[in-house]
Design a protein that fits this description.
The chain is an alpha+beta fold. It contains 4 helices and 14 strands. The strands form 2 sheets. Strands 1, 8, 9, 10, 11, 12, 13 and 14 form an 8-stranded mixed beta sheet that branches. 21% of the residues are buried.
Length: 290
């Protein structure tokens, strides 16, 4: 998956880990940039279904002193050759960006990895990705993950924006270390009950099923294609077969007739022989010399 899909949407998962640069144009080098670090996470509004920006993890000073993450507004960067280039504008980063967006960064939420649940507590997995509009940050699709193995075999669940109700505290994933009675330490992305009826897609099982369906369809089409030809061959052969059968039948009949005629002749011959034998015997009995 690329950072920007064919549909024009941006993938939060694809942005995560991307190298970030800051545009620092110079007099003799207008396209000069400075490496700022890597994208650590996408940041979402605490109440609305939209991405407000992202956090860039900057390298530590002298590999010892930690530096705070740089907040970049959702509309404060560009993607150039697979890298994120932060605009050189006060409203693109940190306080200027928060003021322009009208948000308090401490109240914002990191959606990736949060539990995805219904109001009744039914869990569907965790947020594996969020697809959003590159300029407004409006969430278009929530991609629910069930783990690497399940994703590979069964696929992922894509929840459209209208079925995403938003972030809710009190259940789901633990956000920070706290006492057991601190329900604000838990949070999840709530979705509508319609998600229970949705089917996952993109897994190996689905592809195998599609391959089977394609093979079956090809077989059916092959049968449909060959069937007329086979029927034509049968139709063409039928008169020949019928003629041959008739000829065979006639031959059998002739053979039977001929055999019967021979039998009849033999019977007549033996009958004549018997009659002549009896006549001869009678003639002998009437001979006066005996």
């Amino acid at each position: 998956m690329t950072e920007q899909l064919e549909s024009g949407l941006v993938s939060a998962a694809a942005l995560t880990g991307m190298k970030a640069w800051m545009g620092r144009p110079k007099k003799n080098e207008p396209d000069a940039v400075k490496k700022m670090g890597r994208v650590r996470a996408c940041v979402f509004h605490p109440k609305q279904k939209r991405c407000v920006g992202l956090l860039v993890k900057r390298p530590d000073v002298a590999l010892m002193f930690h530096r705070a993450d740089l907040f970049v507004a959702v509309n404060g960067y560009d993607i150039v050759d697979g890298a994120l280039v932060i605009r050189d504008d006060a409203a693109a980063t940190d306080r200027g960006a928060c003021k322009a967006l009208g948000i308090d960064l401490d109240d914002c939420v990191l959606w990736l990895g949060l539990a995805v649940m219904c109001q009744d507590g039914t869990s569907f997995g965790t947020v594996g990705d969020v697809l959003f509009h590159p300029q407004t940050g409006a969430v278009e699709t929530l991609v629910v993950s069930k783990g690497a193995t399940a994703n590979t075999l069964l696929g992922k669940l894509n929840v459209p924006a209208q079925d995403v109700l938003g972030f809710k505290r009190g259940m789901g994933t633990q956000l920070y270390m706290a006492d057991d009675d601190d329900r604000n330490a838990l949070g999840c992305i709530v979705v509508s009950d319609r998600v229970e009826q949705m089917e996952v897609s993109g897994g190996v099982a689905e592809k195998a099923g599609e391959a089977t369906a394609v093979a079956a369809d090809k077989a059916k089409r092959a049968v449909r294609k060959v069937k007329p030809q086979a029927q034509a061959a049968v139709d063409a052969a039928k008169p020949v077969a019928q003629k041959a059968a008739k000829a065979a039948s006639e031959a059998v009949d002739k053979g039977a007739f001929a055999t019967g005629r021979q039998i009849g002749r033999a019977t007549g011959m033996f009958g004549s022989f018997a009659d002549n034998f009896k006549k001869a015997m009678a003639d002998d009995d009437s001979d006066p010399q005996e």
